């Protein structure tokens, strides 16, 4: 388990509603259109490897458990719980908006970590993320971080020369 990251499926919950306290409550909100996978309207690919359809189809467990493992795919930016030791540090060059979680997940993949999706746990964001709902400097920040990410991927080849994994 020292090389496993525990992925928490991430959702957006309509503003004004209380966060769900259980998977059953979340599924009810999802069915009513009051919850959806995180970034579902902006970047479905950024959360797709979590496999929300598969997760949704699992019966709510009586307690927290690993439901299934998924392979890393670009541009995944999972929310996860990691071991306290042995995890590469977050690259703090990624400031503001864009490529922060993507770069971290990419490096963890190259470093040999596996991704296991949890059932019985999830995270929620209050409000739906919608196009045009960001601050004015977002596009500039995204552009800077996109360039940084290209360099970052080249650095990973040097940092992990024996890894067969790439981003």
UniProtKB/TrEMBL annotation:
GO terms for molecular function: glucuronosyltransferase activity; metal ion binding. Its cofactor is Mn(2+). GO terms for biological process: protein O-linked glycosylation via mannose. Pathway: Protein modification; protein glycosylation. GO terms for cellular component: Golgi membrane. Pfam families: Glyco_transf_49 (PF13896). The keyword Hydrolase does not apply. Keywords: Glycoprotein, Glycosyltransferase, Golgi apparatus, Manganese, Membrane, Metal-binding, Signal-anchor, Transferase, Transmembrane, Transmembrane helix. InterPro entries: B4GAT1. Belongs to the glycosyltransferase 49 family. This is Beta-1,4-glucuronyltransferase 1. The lineage of its organism: Eukaryota, Metazoa, Chordata, Craniata, Vertebrata.
